[in-house]
Design brief:
CATH topology of chain B: fumarase
CATH class of chain B: Alpha Beta
CATH superfamily of chain B: Fe-S hydro-lyase, tartrate dehydratase beta-type, catalytic domain
Number of domains of chain B: 1
Radius of gyration of chain A: 19 Å
Largest sheet of chain A: 4 strands, mixed
Largest interface: A-B, 49 and 46 residues
Number of strands of chain A: 10
Number of helices of chain B: 6
Structural class of chain A: alpha/beta
Strand content of chain B: 25-35%
Helix content of chain B: 25-40%
Strand content of chain A: 15-25%
Oligomer: heterodimer
Helix content of chain A: 25-40%
Radius of gyration of chain B: 16 Å
Order of helices and strands of chain A: EHHHEEHEEHEHEHHEEE
Mean pLDDT of chain B: 96
CATH architecture of chain B: Alpha-Beta Barrel
Order of helices and strands of chain B: EHEHEHEHEHEEH
Low-confidence stretches of chain A: none
């Protein structure tokens, strides 16, 4: 049995929401540098150079990488043997995470990008609520993955319910079409998360989980899906969209596919697009 | 592709010179506006009321910056996706706006308005808001402070970098750039 205090959870969340928005992580930087060397378009090369310069300024001066500091999205893996200690007026794990977001976004001068109601649209003023996906796991582990998810790329994402007979070609066409349609709107070079299988809601969750794979650009352990990722990346990087949609090679930095069992009559496929400002941090408390 | 250093407000004669792919370094004032601010501006126009700033010859920058740290004029301040303002853009062009700055594709209607009212659509590089903030010297709210990051600001900018995506001659840099490289990659055409 491990005991974790909610105060510590809040303080950790407060730190990582800021760190993610100021420090583009090394795996993302390395991939952008690699693509910069490969980029055939001079304009595309210049865009990638500016992305790297921006990352340097953001890190040194603590100015957010992007003004859209995102919805605060969390994937929490909570061990069944973890005991949560209530303190500092924090009455639940959800409360502690939300307090961490509230404090971190204020302290880091991050933007409040949440409206409290989809149609009446009043800003909640503190970037809460956080969007939390819970997973109960065996043991006493407590892992949190944070992703600051901006709207530009999120708005270009898609889900489709295929029939099993449609086959892999139709699904690959759908992924490529979704990136093609997104074009310059999603701030390419993008990272493409693909969720295959599950059901309607689970496929979309998988597609977001796919974005969280580290290092970015590594492949699925299953060779079949690793090959699929390579094929998709090659097709996407032949579309001509290029960095910022101004023409060029590097439309996507990576394609990650994640899968799950599904119904005998279903073949759900979801595509979650992420912009080049891929702000993800994973920690173990 | 030409490069221009210009000061706002601009004239029709200047807009006529611009072609897709030209680089513009803007000095002077930019006015910010996103979804909610545009909705409010259009309501004012419909009611025949006065607007918070004179539109003639000005540029609107689609941005909602992060708050400034103490002593800084502004936080991160890159462009937001422009299509969300498509519904409102033509009306503003018809009343004298000479350019809008954002990222991403515009509707057919907006592109037609550019020809009709002699205006351009410009892109700033998306996702480099820390870098772009270096060209902004001052930011003051001139309307709708209650909208928070969506309020209308007057930004004082110096050599603000942008690129012409759509000109008054029907050109579209996104379409041209994509076509050029797609041909190279898939057909080996240069």
């Amino acid at each position: 049995m491990k005991t974790i205090s909610l105060g510590k959870v809040r303080d950790t969340i407060k730190d990582i929401v800021q760190k993610a928005n100021f420090d583009l992580q090394d795996d993302v930087l390395a991939l952008i540098k690699k693509m910069q060397a490969k980029e055939e378009s001079p304009t595309g090369k210049e865009v990638l150079r500016q992305i790297l310069e921006n990352a340097k300024i953001a890190r040194e001066e603590k100015i957010p990488l992007c003004q859209d500091t995102g919805l605060a999205v969390f994937f929490v893996e909570l061990g069944e043997d973890v005991k949560l200690q209530k303190e500092c007026g924090l009455f639940s794990l959800r409360h502690a995470i939300n307090e961490g977001v509230r404090a971190g976004y204020a302290e880091g001068y991050l933007r409040n990008s949440v409206v409290g109601d989809p149609l009446q649209r009043n800003n909640t003023g503190d970037n809460t609520p956080a969007f939390i996906h819970w997973e109960l796991v065996p043991g006493d582990t407590f892992k949190v993955t944070f992703i600051a998810k901006g709207a530009g790329a999120e708005n270009m994402s898609a889900v489709r319910m295929f029939a099993p007979a449609d086959g892999i070609e139709s699904i690959e066409d759908f992924v490529v079409e979704t990136v093609d349609k997104a074009g310059p709107n999603a701030c390419p070079p993008v990272i493409v998360g693909v969720g295959l299988g599950g059901n309607f809601e689970y496929s979309t969750l998988l597609s977001k989980k796919a974005l969280l794979r580290r290092p970015v650009g590594s492949h699925n352990r299953d060779k079949f899906y690793a090959q699929m990722e390579r094929r998709l990346l090659e097709r996407i990087n032949n579309l001509g969209i290029g960095p910022q949609g101004l023409g060029g090679r590097c439309t996507a930095l990576a394609v990650h596919v994640e899968t799950f069992p599904c119904h005998i009559a279903s073949m759900p496929a979801a595509v979650n697009i992420q912009c080049h400002s891929h702000r993800v941090i994973r920690i173990v408390i | 592709m030409a490069e221009y250093c210009i000061e706002t407000p601009v004239t029709d004669e200047f807009i006529e010179k611009l072609r897709v792919g030209d680089y513009l370094y803007i000095t002077g004032n930019l006015y910010t506006g996103r979804d909610s601010a545009h909705k409010k501006l259009i309501e004012l126009i419909k009611k025949g009321k006065g607007l918070p700033f004179d539109l003639k010859g000005q540029f609107i920058y689609y941005v909602g910056s992060t708050p400034p740290r103490p002593g800084k004029p502004i936080g991160s301040a890159g462009p937001t996706t422009s299509y969300r303002m498509d519904l409102y853009a033509s009306k503003l062009y018809s009343l004298g706006i000479k350019g809008t700055i954002g990222k991403g594709c515009r509707s057919k209607e907006v592109k037609e308005s550019l020809k009709k009212y002699k205006a351009v659509y410009l892109a700033a590089i998306g996702g480099v808001g820390a870098l772009i903030s270096k060209s902004i010297e001052k930011a003051e709210i001139i309307a709708y402070p209650e909208l928070g990051p969506e309020a209308i600001y007057r930004l004082k900018v110096k050599d603000f970098p942008s690129i012409v995506i759509n000109d008054i001659y029907g050109g579209d840099l996104y379409e041209e750039g994509k076509r050029q490289y797609k041909n190279i990659f898939t057909k080996g055409l240069m």
